[in-house]
Specification:
By secondary structure, this protein is α/β, with parallel strands linked by helices. It contains five helices and five strands.
Length: about 190
């Protein structure tokens, strides 16, 4: 069983939190974490590349010249793919789907593996509470400097919505606030 120290906002140990066995005893599988992360990114992806076919390009309603007697090749439309300004034959369409299905158990297991990795590398901290009276962003940063995870990027996971904390932390570029039910492998 793994244990994490519960700290107060001054960085002092207050209590010990016993981790569930499914997180503390999990074996980290980089392949699964990679699959879930790339699937998440791919599901966020939008298909934006789009080319027009000869039917969608503007113009080309009538035959450019008559079929016989001119000495030129037959032509039915000036928007043919072989003409300049014509449609594209096999270009990319907006109908492409990048969605990848991830089972809930796999996603949950990958998230637990990421939490275990953070725990092993001493980058995970549990705070007693964040209900302190701070009205300025500068005071909030000073409090965070007392914690052992002070670094370039911080993810603060809240159990419930706290408007005061969101207001204080929203102007700090390297801090991201996230509700517990929205926690995902990318964050």
């Amino acid at each position: 069983m793994g244990n994490i120290d519960i700290l107060n906002y001054k960085g002092e140990k207050v209590d010990v939190f016993e981790l569930p066995t499914k997180i503390s005893s999990i074996k980290i599988k980089p392949g699964l974490v990679h699959f879930v992360a790339t699937a998440k990114l791919s599901n966020l992806r939008k298909s934006t590349a789009h080319t027009k076919t000869r039917g969608e390009v503007r113009g080309g309603g009538r035959k450019p010249w008559r079929q016989k007697g001119t000495g030129r090749a037959r032509a039915g439309s000036i928007r043919s793919p072989i003409w300049k300004g014509g449609g594209v034959i096999f270009g990319p369409r907006k109908t492409r789907n990048y969605y990848k299905k991830v089972n809930k158990k796999m996603a949950r297991q990958a998230l637990n593996m990421c939490l275990k990795d953070k725990l092993d590398n001493k980058k995970l901290v549990i705070l007693e509470n964040l209900n302190f009276e701070v009205k300025k962003t500068k005071e909030f940063v000073d409090i965070l400097k007392h914690l052992p995870v002070w670094q370039k990027k911080l993810l603060i996971i809240l159990s419930k919505k706290d408007n005061k904390l969101i207001k204080v932390a929203r102007n700090i570029s390297f801090i991201k606030l996230l509700r517990l039910n929205l926690l995902n492998i990318l964050d």
